[in-house]
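Our consortium's second objective concerns turning raw sequence data into structural hypotheses that experimental partners can test. To show how far this objective has progressed, the report includes one record in full. It was chosen at random from the queue rather than selected for favorable results. The single chain below, 141 residues long, was entered without modification.
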Amino acid sequence: MDKYFFLMAQMPFLSFGIKTYMTKIKFLEEAAKANVSEEMIEKSDLMCAFRSFEDGLRDEAMFIRAGGRAAWPYTGAHPLEVEKNLLRARWDFVEEKSLNRVFDVTAVAAYCLKLEILERYFVFDKDRGLKNFDQICEAVL
């Protein structure tokens, strides 16, 4: 089993909802220097489990929308809050599956997934959203 001590040791600590200077693209560049290809990350056990988890979330949402169940565990007052709750559920899944995995391919995949989640989390911008909403309303009216 390969170990990526140097790669993972030099990466900044990630916390849900906290910005970081690291991006997925920069991380993949650093991973490539440590002989970790994107293909290795995509084929890791964690990525396979994450895809299954993601499919389960989507299936559950579809089932609820079809009227099959009234309760949705990822509720919120508005869609943005629900999206953030879903992102938190994804983060927690990655944390759970990568527990005690620090220097192997699972750790590399977990770091990559966490960066994706953070990038998605910080794409939401209230001012930009209101501007887009106003433009859509003007176009419709």
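The partners drew two points from this record. The chain has one domain: 5-140. The CA atoms of residues 29 and 37 lie 9 Å apart. Both points have been shared with the crystallography group to help prioritize constructs.
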